[in-house]
Amino acid sequence: MLSAKSLFQEILDNDESFRLFCSIAASGESQGGWENARIAALVPASERALVPKITRHGADEDKHGRIFNALMKKRGLTPVAVPDETDYTMLLETSGIGLAHDKLKRDEPLTVQDIVTYLAHSRVTEQRAAEQMDLLRKHFADHPDIGRAVRMISNDEDNHLAYCHEELLRLAHAGHGRAIQHTLRESALAEIRVYRDVSLAVMTHMGRILGWPRAKSAVLAAGIHALYAWERLAGWRRMVSLTMPERRDALGGPATTAPEFA
Description:
Elements (H helix, E strand, L loop, with lengths): L3 H10 L1 H28 L8 H24 L13 H7 L6 H5 L6 H29 L6 H64 L3 H20 L29
């Protein structure tokens, strides 16, 4: 019987599939770390209070990248090149979602609207990350090899999502509500399309590595398309709602360090 737990266990048990999974995850997290570091350096004067939080967000993402690399190293594995079609962060940027890297590479201060764009994009992508890590935590929180990493990353992603909610609500109260809702909707609809495409690409690579029969791949592809159809119809709305989180000032303190896995 196919289930999220059985599929990930299959990926976890094979060195090549685990190496690809961790390489994709590490690359995305490291990219997020760079983006947040550049945004922190370019925050406009009126939003300088956000700098420590954006900096911590980036530090957390860098930490996650190091954790995934450490998990590979523990098994004697080295990272592999990430196939372009599985590069979630690159494909989102190509879709025009978030702040363009060309903008972040320039030493020009961002605008408040840029900060709205950054936070709205983060609110959508952190929703996805928090849900994925929650699923892994549900099934693998006590796993002897990856359990500690799963718990730490999941807690961080929950903090990131709470931070986005709180800061977007603050900006909405400051008069940016219409821009926030427009950007959230645009980001959510693009994200679910990119997530579908990346999921299909990752499934294809994993199927090749693990030797999945055609019928199994077809069932998994149908499930990915069904999820996209639901998200396109109604599921995207969970990515655009804003509620004051229970975790207030979730990124108000220093980032935690990555644990040793050797």
